[in-house]
Amino acid sequence: MKILYTATVLSHICQFHLPHMKMLQEQGWEVHVAAHDNLAVKNGLQLKYCDRFIETPFDRSPKSPNNLKAYKQLKELLSKEHYDVILCNTPMGGIVTRLAAKKTRKEGTKVIYMAHGFHFYKGSPKSGWLVYYPIEKYMAKYCDLLITVNKEDYALALERFAKRTKVAHIHGVGVDEQRYHPATPEEQLAMRKAEGLSKDDFVILCTGELNENKNQSTLIRAAAMLKDRIPNLKVLLAGNGPKEQELRELAASLGLQEIVRFLGYRTDLEQVTPAVDLVVSCSCREGMPLNIIEAMLCKKQVVASHNRGHDELIEEGSTGSLLDPDNSDGFGDAILSLFKDPGRRGKMGEEGCKKAQNYTVGFVSKEIEKLLAFKG
Fold first, then answer.
1. SS (H, E, C) the chain
2. Res. 357 pLDDT band, cuts 50 70 90
């Protein structure tokens, strides 16, 4: 059996699909990947479990002529390779791949599109419904299976797209429970020392690309409110992106140079997450956030913004706290309350770890294995 994974950028494949690719290789599948290689800016992220990589000039911009080049290249590739399954991801990667696969699909190749979070959802900007919804509705007929990674998208897809294609739901893409798990106090202390942190620091971790959607500015403003209330406060921002300079300037303007640390893009957060006190995410939009699942598997309490991904994972008062994305005062109050009550943090961490078990690589790989055996 032979499968082709496609995505607009290679980092997407490396961040989300390697465990499933490993599973397929172990079962005897030949695994190919087609994407634009952007790993040079991803600080050590590597492609693994791949028998062949095909550099493909996808572009995130629908207006880019590179997508036409990618379409022509893919059509030629598909006519030669005769894949059993094509699993396409990301908006432009998914569109271009499905169009290029029209002929080979008629010849028996199964085409699967994995939606990691629709751009149209409850409370989304009207532009999401006006632009992205018609495109997804039209493109649904060009795949044999549409996979969603959260319950809200699944319900929407069943309602809007089920007449055009088969629809399925999985519990995200899975977090490796062998990497992310609770650490002993001694292990946590060693991790802190490696990051230049002390035992007495109260450490908050926020992971994600430094962009508008991830909305780290809310956490930075909350930190300004907390700097005189929480001794030895440290805020770690793990990621890179277009908003980095703006966020650095914001932190400096609020006198947080010694509190907010920019870690850059990291591929070893299993050496950081178990050692922090709290994980925070202020994202405006999430499909199924890995950083929250990673935190929960490490028994870390979570303070996060309301969105469909967070809302599915976090139960208010039981496994975490949920607030509006731009409510920096609310984030500050929630963080301060948890700082004052370590026992509550511990209890919530325990509950979160139980919740996260259905979102592990082991659990999700079984779901994907079943879906790859489907009859379209």
1. CEEEEEEEEHHHHHHHCHHHHHHHHHCCCEEEEEEECCHHHCCCCCCCCCCEEEECCCCCCCCCCHHHHHHHHHHHHHHHHCCCEEEEECHHHHHHHHHHCHHHHHCCCEEEEEECCCCCCCCCCHHHHHHHHHHHHHHHHHCCEEEECCHHHHHHHHHHHCCCCEEEECCCCCECCCCCCCCCHHHHHHHHHHCCCCCCCEEEEEECCCCCCCCHHHHHHHHHHHCCCCCCEEEEEEECCCCHHHHHHHHHHCCCCCCEEEEECCCCHHHCHHHCCEEEECCCCCCCCHHHHHHHHCCCEEEEECCHHHHHHCCECCCEEEECCCCHHHHHHHHHHHHCCHHHHHHHHHHHHHHHHHHEHHHHHHHHHHHHCCCC
2. very high
- Angle, alpha carbons 314-315-319 (nearest 5°): 75
With the CA atoms of 80, 84, 88 and 94 taken in that order, what torsion angle do they form, in degrees rounded to the nearest 10? 60
Specify the pLDDT at position 29. 97
Please tell me if the domain spanning 2-174+361-372 has the same topology as the one spanning 185-359. yes
Q: How many CB atoms lie within 10 A of CB 166?
A: 18
> Domain coordinates of the chain in residue numbers?
2-174+361-372, 185-359
Reference 313, options 338, 343, 348; nearest CA is: 348
What confidence tier does 374 reach under pLDDT thresholds 50, 70, 90?
low
Which two tokens mark 243? 């908003």
- Domain 185-359 bears CATH identifier 3.10.580.10: no
- What is the rounded distance in angstroms from the CA atom of residue 173 to the CA atom of residue 369? 12
| pLDDT digits 0-9 by tens, 272-307 | 999 999 999 999 999 999 999 999 999 999 999 999
Fold category of 2-174+361-372 in CATH: Rossmann fold (3.40.50)
Measured between alpha carbons, how far is 151 from 172 in angstroms, rounded to an integer? 10
| Contact between 293 and 312 (Cβ < 8 Å) | no
Q: Which residues contact 130 (CB under 8 A, 6 or more apart)?
A: none
